[in-house]
Structures are given as C-alpha cells and as structure tokens.
Amino acid sequence: MNVIRRRAGVALGLAGLVVPLTVALGAAPAQAASCNLSTGPYQKQVEKFLGRTVDGRQSAADCRAIQSFQRTHGITPTVGYAGPLTWRTMNTMLAQRAAGSNPNKARACPTSRGRIACVDLTRQLSWIQDGARLKYGPVPVRTGKDGTETRTGSKKIYWRNINHWSTIYNVRMPYAQFFDGGQAFHSTTKSMWNPPGSGGCVNMRTADAKAYWNLLRNGDDVYVYGRKPGT
C-alpha cells in the first residue's frame, strides 16, 4: 500500500508540471492592453514555445498568443511583446519539464538525512525525498524576488500553522510550514510563474502545499540551493 501511495504522489507531482505549449488565441478582453506588434529580442524562442510558426517576425496572431500567456501568469506590461521577462518565464518552465521524474539527478540536494524537502531556486522546483526515494514532486514553486530572496542552505521546519495569517503582508498563508525566520512553505492563489516572486516564502499551489503539510513534520530537513532567475 505504501508503494502505491508513493507512486501516486510522484505521479501527481509530475502531472502538475505539465504546461501547455499552445495558448488559446481568443480575442483579448476589452480592458486588456493593446498588442505591441514590434518584434521582440526573443521572438523565435517564444514562437517555438507557444507552438507558433517560427519565423522571427511578430504578427498580430503571435502578439495575441504572447499576450494570453502574459495575462495567465501576471506578466506586465501585458502587451504581447517577446521580451526578456516573458522568455525567462518560459525558459524556467522548460527547465522544470526537463527535470522529469529525477529532479535530484545532479545530487545537489543531500539525501543522507532521511526525509528532506528540497528547493531548487534556479529551476523554481521543489520535491520531497526520503533517502534516495522521491516521495512527492517535483512541483513548481514561486520563491523570493530580488531583494527578498529565499535564503539558501540547510534548514529545519520549526513551526507549522495550517491557517496562518501574515501580519507583515496582511495575507493568508494556508498550510504554512516555517523553516527559516519568517520564510515558509505555504499555498497561494497566484500563478507559480508570476513575477517577480514572493517576499521570501516558497509559494505553492494549494494541492502541493497540502501534500507537503501531510508529509512533513517539525524537525524535518529543508535544503534550499541555487539562484532564482532574475535575482
């Protein structure tokens, strides 16, 4: 039964990393910004990611597709321009997909401590290991922005609050598990690819934050490494 649950957890985590290569090309809402028809510096890369014809020339259809992607993930200005921030977001998604079912292939996260939650800032990924066994994930996360980066190094979960309220940011932090000062795993309603990032916490989707809550306990290890793109 434990094996079945473990495999189910891994499968759920991997399924969460599926990001569509195509974006609906429906008409933009009336309140949305108008499209920028200029060719961006990452035009070809963005066209390829979105499944568009890769010709390196911005078209009205390209612009609407890029704009839809930007709107979905809160990238501003939402004008359909293939600029650095849009491509950085897409490139992070590609790195997450490439992790597959072996996010710790490079063995950057220590696995000799028993149960441990790993956080890779570079790929914006997290997962839970139990020794060499992958227990859950990998799943996309949203970590600290430039100036309030998620701190790297070895940590331990020291306090948990399922319905935490942040008095600093005046926001709910469901399934909060603190591991370094005010920094914690917790759920958020924002896209995991929403720039610029959090105030230092490791934001997660609700299902993933709930799974972490059920799998982790006070005293469990957390290891944070890498560097978030753009910081």
From TrEMBL:
GO CC list: extracellular region
Entry-linked InterPro entries: LD-transpeptidase (IPR050979), LD_TPept_cat_dom (IPR005490), PGBD-like_sf (IPR036365), PGBDSf (IPR036366), Transpep_catalytic_dom (IPR038063)
Superkingdom as given in the UniProt entry: Bacteria
Record-linked PROSITE patterns: LD_TPASE
Keywords in alphabetical order: Cell shape, Cell wall biogenesis/degradation, Peptidoglycan synthesis, Signal, Transferase
Residues of the L,D-TPase catalytic domain: 114-225
Signal peptide range: 1-32
Pathway in which this enzyme or protein is active: Cell wall biogenesis; peptidoglycan biosynthesis
GO biological process: cell wall organization; peptidoglycan-protein cross-linking; regulation of cell shape
UniProt entry tagged with the keyword Transferase: yes
Gene Ontology molecular function: peptidoglycan L,D-transpeptidase activity; transferase activity
Active site: 186 (proton donor/acceptor), 201 (nucleophile)
Protein name, entry field: Murein L,D-transpeptidase
Higher taxonomy: Bacteria, Bacillati, Actinomycetota, Actinomycetes, Kitasatosporales
